[in-house]
Amino acid sequence: MEKQKQKQQSVNEILPLELIERILLRVPVKQLGRLRCVSKLWCSLISDPHFVESHLHNSPAPTHVCLFDSDSTEGHFVHLEELFHDKFPLKAVSLPFKKKPPSEFRVMGSCRGFVLLNRKPHFLVVWNPLTGSSKRISYSCIVPCWWRFWLSYYARLYGFGYDVSRDDYLVVLAAQYSDGQQRLDCFSLRTNSWINFDSAISKVSLGPFDWKSCGLFLNGSIHWLSASLNKPYCETLLIFDLKERSFSKISLPEQLVLRDSPNLAVLGGCLAIYSTDYVKHKTEIWVMREYKVHSSWTLYEIPGAYSNFYPLCLSNDSEIIALASTSGYRPLIKFIKYNIRGELLQQYTRSIHNPNHCLYTESLLLLPNDSKPKDNNKKKKNVM
């Protein structure tokens, strides 16, 4: 009897679709881009907005990336999870700018895998470094011409966040003119338009240097630290709820003593405030373990008085990865890992042209009105 060749079955024929989806939800996000090429079925599944959203929230191993704006055409990034295991962790990436000759830009924030960039002379770019998708936003219609070159100097406060109730990303800009008039504008990526919310800001004082300009997005709101003119320390956090389009405040811990200019961070999914004490030669990091619960503020202390110190990540509630940078002709960046007892575990030092940075979590999310991600082959050309 002639032997019949058995047809080799594919994974799609062996496993039910529900099980394949559960397996893919546990795959690191940067590997999912490659797996889209396995079959049309997998490409459709991985590109589905519901799958992408579920992976963002349920992935057991989210990828944290630190992006540096090295020069006007190129940036560098490092995956924090691979930082101390990869021999050459710092990698180059082409930026989403087409204009020639190139002009200067600044990193202004991040949200759900997207990075907000400010490009001279008068536009912003929302960019997903993993997928390569981007959107250009002009602000020439709301900002006086003499402030357009650097938006961060015009804005008393600015931020970038996501409104889950409307499935919309918002760029928030607030300003105060010399005559005392205050202005609040939000750009909606879903409607592709600027919206004025002056009524929301009418009860908030934006006097000169009252607030730290750059805000952090967490739990549906953008957060800023207050910096009072009359007192040498901060008292409150200013919060803008993107769903309600309203401001509120929460108080900082009473034990907090800030001898240097404080800053905000998101560590382990929690809001944190940190400041360096050069007298006691240490950096204090206060983490709000439960959002808006005042009694949950928890103190961590890191030894050493670095001139530029930025906590980046709190992993497994036991290790803090931080960035310390120096200024000068050849600035150095140093990644440092401490345990929560303040003991140095590992460090990595590298020379880089511009130490300005932004932290984001990789995702395959698309912006509103985007139908599909860019071709994966085109994306590979941008990453070296």
From TrEMBL:
Tree of life domain: Eukaryota
Residues in F-box domain copies: 15-54
Record-linked InterPro entries: F-box-assoc_dom_typ1, F-box-assoc_interact_dom, F-box-like_dom_sf, F-box_dom, Gal_Oxase/kelch_b-propeller, SCF_F-box_component
Gene3D superfamilies: 1.20.1280.50
CDD domains the UniProt entry points to: F-box_AtFBW1-like
PANTHER family attached to this UniProt entry: BNACNNG10540D PROTEIN, F-BOX PROTEIN CPR30-LIKE
NCBIfam families tied to this protein: F_box_assoc_1 (TIGR01640)
Protein's name in the database: F-box domain-containing protein
Species name: Stylosanthes scabra
Upper classification of the organism: Eukaryota, Viridiplantae, Streptophyta, Embryophyta, Tracheophyta
